[in-house]
Amino acid sequence: MIRRIGRPGLLATAARTAVIAGTAQATAGAVASRQHARAQQAQAAAAPPPQVVAAPPVQAAPQPPAPSGAGDLIAQLERLAQLQSAGVLSAEEFAAAKAKLLS
């Protein structure tokens, strides 16, 4: 086989061009995917986190115990009056609990 000295042949030039083009395409693809990943991370970091809104707790009106006698009835009415004056019971709740005790 005779080795040529000077310019490379057509086949060598085509092979070299293919290697360079393939390397350039692979590099461009890697750069593009890295930029896409960074853009997604930046969007995720810039977005505010979702806010969880909790419902306010519902306060249940205390149930008065069942009356067992006249002394207990007065004590229960006094307790209801104290709860109303403390702001735990509204006027309507107080009236309903009082009517339930007296019935």
TrEMBL record:
It comes from the Bacteria. Pfam families: SHOCT. Residues 39-61 have a biased composition (Low complexity). Keywords: Signal. Residues 1-26 form the signal peptide. Residues 75-102 form the SHOCT domain. InterPro entries: SHOCT. The keyword Signal applies. Residues 32-71 are annotated as: Disordered. The keyword Signal applies. This is SHOCT domain-containing protein.
